[in-house]
Every structure is written in C-alpha cells, then in structure tokens.
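Lab notebook, bench 4. We co-purified these components, and the gel suggests they stay together. Before we commit to crystallization screens, I want a quick structural picture of the whole thing.
Request: model the full complex, all chains together.
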Amino acid sequence: MKNPMHFQLNGQAVTLDIDDERPLLGVLRGELGLTGTKYGCGAALCGACTVTADGQAVRACKTPLRNVAGKSVVTVEGLMHKGKLSALQQAFIDFGAFQCGYCTSGMLMSATELLHNTPHPTRAVIVGHMERNLCRCGAHQRIVMAIEAAALQRRQLA
Ligand code: FES
Ligand code: FES
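Here is the predicted assembly.
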C-alpha cells in the first residue's frame, strides 16, 4: 500500500511516499542511494543485505518497508562516527577479514548487533551468531578474529 511512512536512517529522519510492501533493500539501494548494503540471495539466507532496525539485525531483502516504520535503521554507511571507522570496521581491516568484500557490510551489521547485545562474547558465541552470514571467499576465521579483537578493545575501553 502506498502510504507516507517515516523512519530514521543512520540518524536522519526519512519520509517516503512509496509502496510500503517493497523490500527495504531495494529502497535503500534505489531511492535512498545507499549501495553499501548488498543483494546476495534475495531469500533471507545469506546475510549480505543485513542492516539493523532498533538494534536488531534484519534481512533487508525480505523486510517490507512497513516493518521499519518509526524505527531507527542503521546501514553500513552509518557505522562511522565523526569521520572515524568504528572499532569493528577497523578490526576487519586489521585482520584482513574479507577478500572480495561482498559479504562485509552484512557481516559488520550482524556483528554490530551481537556486540550491542553481548558486549563480551565468547568465541563460540561469535561463531554461532555469525553462522547466519555466509562468506563465499571463506574469510570466516578472520571475521571471527576481528570481532573478538573489537570486543576486547571495547572491554579495555569500558
Ligand atoms: S540478500 Fe538478503 S539474505 Fe541474502
Ligand atoms: S569476502 Fe567475499 S564473500 Fe566474503
């Protein structure tokens, strides 16, 4: 249904007057020009399209726009703060936690959700959480190491 709907996107208020049954992913990449969130499977299976809505990771390819009405959506473009990479983003770089990088934005957003809800995760918890995001390049081990490092850094700063 076409309805004016409002939500926050990376801290900015957004109002759209388009079909709110459309998947969030297409709206982010199309109307809103945020192409950091990727299309992989289109079936809520791979995690390439992961963003957060009110802190919860959602698969934007299968999330109708209406589901985020009134919520605070964060995409990979919203992870930087005052022009500085987040600790998690920096750890991905430091550990070389990607090859082609196609899965990276979804990995970062899933890991952001994890560290938000579980600031001090064990390796097993990280592995279990990140199993839902697929990396065709096989960078999983370095991804887990990067998340561990970011979690450790948060603990040291706390
Ligand atoms: S593109 Fe959404 S889960 Fe794969
Ligand atoms: S780095 Fe290529 S799919 Fe993960």
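The first helix runs from residue 24 to 29. Worth comparing against the SEC data before the next meeting. The helical segments are 24-29, 87-94, 104-117, 123-130, 140-157.
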